[in-house]
Specification:
By secondary structure, this protein is mainly alpha-helical. The protein has one domain. Strands 1-2 form a two-stranded parallel ribbon. Helix 2 crosses helix 5. It is flat. The two termini are 23 Å apart.
Length: 133
Amino acid sequence: MLKPELVFFHDLHDNETRNHHHIGDNAMSYELAVRGRDSVMDEVAKGADFLIANKRRFAEFKVVDSNHDLALERYVREGRYRNDGINIRYGLQLEDAYLGWREQEAKALDKHEAPPRFSLLEHAMRGLRGAMA
């Protein structure tokens, strides 16, 4: 019945898997592992799959970088993936992309140009699910 032209999503990605509020909480880490919810990549894929499943011809989706979405970037920036077993290699890939953007940003700023826009969550989702058509 409703056919909105624009649909906004906030906190699309929860970052439950490696939330900074649970750093050092071994019981929470164990619980997530027992439940099969300890893969950052799997959590990113679920968010992308949600967008794909809900795509409509008449609506354009806008994902707003909210605090939970940005927690993925914080996880990478802080290097917490480095001692995080199942997530090490994926974290390295995300950090490489993030540092690549920071390099582009630095060069743009030195040229007094507007830095390019970048969302690590968007990059991660598109890396797993392509254009998410």
